[in-house]
Amino acid sequence: MDKVVATALEAVADVPDGASLAVGGFGLSGVPNALIQALFERRVGGLSVVSNNCGAMESGLAVLLAAGRIGRVTGSYIGANKEFARQYLAGELEVEMIPQGTLAERLRAGGAGIPAFYTPAGVGTQVAEGGLPWRYDGSGGVALASPAKEVRTFDGVAYVLERGIRTDFALVRAAKGDRHGNLVFSKSARNFNPLAAMAGKVTIAEVEELVEPGAIDPDAVHLPGIFVQRVVALTAEQAADKKIERRTVSVPATRGSVGG
After folding, report:
1. Number of alpha carbons in the 13 Å side-chain half-sphere of residue 170
2. What InterPro entries would the database entry show (predicted)?
3. Of 166, 183, 168, 167, which Cα lies nearest the Cα of 231?
4. What is the CATH number of domain 8-115+164-240?
């Protein structure tokens, strides 16, 4: 089955207001920027987003966030996104913060058809006991807090029950993909992408290189096409557009110093 769609706009054409999205990426690595930009151009709003973070440096999900298109975020990192923090503290945005490993497993579990699982992460904290501020009232008070979760003991160790995550759509970015939707991710861009793809009921992948079926060694496939419904091939310019979040430059060694 050929799953290739001509453009990013066509690929997200049926994403409605209020949809839930699982979005791959970590920082600026592996972010499906073309698909996010297509949603922005379509003016889709009221979105519930599940992603490690919510964009940075005015790219990725930060584009939708700044435009007021996101109503809820499930993630594990706010980072240096000042607009994210502002909307959250002002009561404009509902935020469910989750331990990073738990978020990864909730996405994977949802995609694997596992409704819930037990983990020790968060036991003895507000993650399990409830009370984390999901939404502020804009005046410093908490308008909506997280509920308590079930905690059980196995072999003398306490575990908290976490639910698997399923979303209406998933947006991911891969280094290579074929027309059947089989995907290969490059290095750290692999991050949350396979997990987000598994969690979506309809998964859309933007790929830097589109190849024909059979061109990818089956042993090299990171995510099988069964999890992917649509594939969009990026242009050479889009594929090469990879921002750097923080540049670091080493200090030159002075003449006569060790190794100088």
Report:
1. 31
2. 3-oxoacid_CoA-transf_A, CoA_trans_fam_I, CoA_transf_BS, NagB/RpiA_transferase-like
3. 183
4. 3.40.1080.10
